[in-house]
Amino acid sequence: MTGTLHIIGAGMAGLAAAVEAAGSGPRIIVHEAGRACGGRARSYMDRQLGCRIDNGNHLLLSANKTVFRYLGLTGALDTLTGPHAPLFPFVDLAEDARWTLNLSRGRMPWWVFQPHRRVPDMRLPDLRSLYRLMNAGENETVADCLLPGAFARRLLEPFAISALNTLTDTGSAALLGAVIRESLSLGGTACMPWFAKVGLSETLVDPALKHLQDMNVEVRTQSRITGVEEARGRITTLHTPEEDITLGPDDSIIMAVPAPVAQSLLANKIAGITAPTEFESILNLHFKLDERPIPQGSFAQCGFMGVIGGVTEWVFLRENILSVTVSAANRYADQNQDDLARTIWQEVCQACDAVLEQPLPATPAAQRVVWEKRATFAATPEQNRLRCGPATPLVNLALAGDWTNTGLPATLEGAMRSGVQAVHTLGLKHPR
Questions:
Q1: Which of 93, 12, 2 is nearest to 60 (CA)?
Q2: Which interval of the chain is the signal sequence (predicted)?
Q3: How far, in Å, CA of 32 to CA of 55, rounded?
Q4: pTM confidence score
Q5: Do the strands 366-377 and 279-288 form a parallel or antiparallel pair, or are they unpaired?
Q6: Tell me: the pLDDT tens digits for 368-427?
Q7: How far apart are CA 325 and CA 307, in angstroms?
């Protein structure tokens, strides 16, 4: 195919679309409104901490096939680190309990029969929660499907909040069920945890930009698309502050932008395009220490720890930085930010001191709070129904983004899957 493919947005969906389409025929131009690519999955130099940090933490599972294919195509597989086993250290602050979930590698869940590998105090009948989630209807919430007990409280609830970025009493059971079908139900081989060895940009962005450069893909940063024109069922013009880009008959567009931006650009152009209208935040805190903590046990092997019974949900250790992620953070929006940071640091000390060679100081050397106010759409049954697919009534336009209907919540896998689907929808490349 000749012509030009314009990809609007260089977050994970846009970069995945560009990597998928590269070499398929058309010239490709990626338009990114900001100074840097990567969207919510990038690194930057933080002046307050005096070091480079990620704007959030992302834990990948080996089940994320689209992500790992992307990393393979961009030559970034060796930028990941992890325990090379389906291990997940946890601490329960409320009940002063610690354990390491150690999943069986195959589909047969032998781990549930071995107390030292499973969630403490869980009962085998509690596994019915998994069946109920995987078979949930579109109107059911996660809470509707969970049986009371340690298995739900100590695994399924934190897993749900992390995957959906939405609390269990409103989160979509069908979306969580889709995640479980692609991960936990397939066994530990599909649940190997991985994360960026150095930083998100070094794993997800920089290798992709180098690959796209090698493939003669043009990436334009600070290239904001301010509007589009439509005629006879096609997008005919892209407006920027500097110029109008006239599209030829063989040109096409993938709009890989957040839902509000897509709706703004397409206002009065396409009837019936719907998108989520409610959003959830993610709170990330980065604590810098004067010296690198020396971890022990499974915390040392994994480099991260799940935390329940407090505000803190996940702690990641990279050199002398302890990073905390709190999902579904709208519930904390009215709290004083300094008080919240102090509470979380106290929880980090409680969670980590027992598995470090030396206890943490009373206060960190420096800290940075990163609050993504509209990180993802609220993954409720109602909002999930508002998601549209990649195809549009305009023959040369496809939509991408973690808010589109991928069948998954707003995860990295969902975002990249949407970009790949958009390329296939336009017929630029056929799925394998």
A1: 12
A2: none
A3: 18
A4: 0.95
A5: antiparallel
A6: 999 999 999 999 999 999 999 999 999 999 999 999 999 999 999 999 999 999 999 999
A7: 10
